[in-house]
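Board work, copied verbatim: MALR1 protein
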Amino acid sequence: GSSCEKCDFETDLCKALHELHLQSGWIRRNGQSGMGPPYSDHNGSDSAYFLSLSSEMRSSSATLRTNVFLPTDEEHICQITFHYWISQTSGTLMVGLQKHSEDAITNIWQVSGKLQNQWKTNTITINSTEKYEV
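↓ predict structure ↓
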């Protein structure tokens, strides 16, 4: 069966993300927060919550980490679909993979703000023979 889990930030961080890792510049807000665009989520709702970088973070980077995922195989593939918005031409969004036997984080996807100021959607498929975080 499908073990898909939706992560919508309506009440707090979702189960897939480390609950205590929001100090790194990410804030949970919606389009009514008076913090500038985006003024709605990817469905056009101005009351739905999403994560946003605080304005103090313009010059540096901030990380969001998932909890530990189990290894993938033919039966258990991992697909992560996410919606993103880039409002700065200089910003880059990267998805990294950290396997438990490795210290290094492998960059598996990235995009920079060429088509900014609109919601985009992306799906990545992850293969790992050991436990990993994203």
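The radius of gyration is 15 Å.
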